[in-house]
Amino acid sequence: MSPSNVETLINLLMLLALFVGLAIWWATKHGGKRGRIAERVREAALSHQTVPADFEDDGQEKTFRRRLLRRLAAFGDKLPLFDAKYRAKLRQEMVRSGYRSHYAVSVLLAVKFCFGLLCAAPTVMLGQHIPLIGSFPVGRGAAMMGAFVIGMMLPEYAIAFRASRRRKEMAGSLPDALDLLVICTNAGNSLAVSIRRVADELATICPPLSDEFSLTADELKLSGDSTRALHGLAERIDLPSIRALISTLTQSMRYGTPITQALRILSRTERLTHIVSLEEKAAKLAPKMVLPMMLFILPAVVVIAAGPAVIQLLEVINKK
Prior knowledge:
The chain is built from ten helices and no strands. By secondary structure, it is mainly alpha-helical.
């Protein structure tokens, strides 16, 4: 490595150290007692969450994945760059993505920081080759910080994409779940037993929705607070149809109206909405097929149709 590259690396590392130092100072200066209290409340609330099998200490030999996740969680807990409010926001997004462990946020924060460093490393090594700003240390430092911030944003976007895909999967299976719930309530089962039965039936059809219903059934059985358990289901899934279902069930239990009739109406409405969405997708299919047909199918048809005529024309021209 040339002396100029060494000097550039030292300057950028000093900028990174200054950035981390300022972040630590800001966290200790502005967090104070209130920040520590909020952090303790967050840890106490998260300690009651379900721990997945990846983090359970079951006495077996620890695999490489478990050791890595534990180390990432320990590293993420010690990062002072993220306050309790931001961690709570990430906690909600992770729950909606299907990660309910109280280690999930810490692992995500560690992954975000590592991705930021990985994206900033090429900028540090190849900073002099950046056009216009590569010859200035301040420009290279700004590029490094930009790459670091972009790298930290990528894991969060991946989690948001997973949550969106999970919601779409659950929305597609929700009409079937409502139909099963209507059948179970018509059979005389209670709400908790009906939700458990529906979760068991959906285990192979839609595992995410089955997991959410199973967790809700456990909360209804253990806590007895049906309103809180149902609202927790709405917060985890975050779908308008689920919120309508929870509102219907809550009002039925509050005013003593029959749950079966309300569920039947809601199931019919959700089924109609699902059919309308499928018809809308089918109507959009024809315009979307125009460009692929023009690029891939039309040239082959032209070659097959006009190929023999072109060959005969070339033969006639060659004879003359």
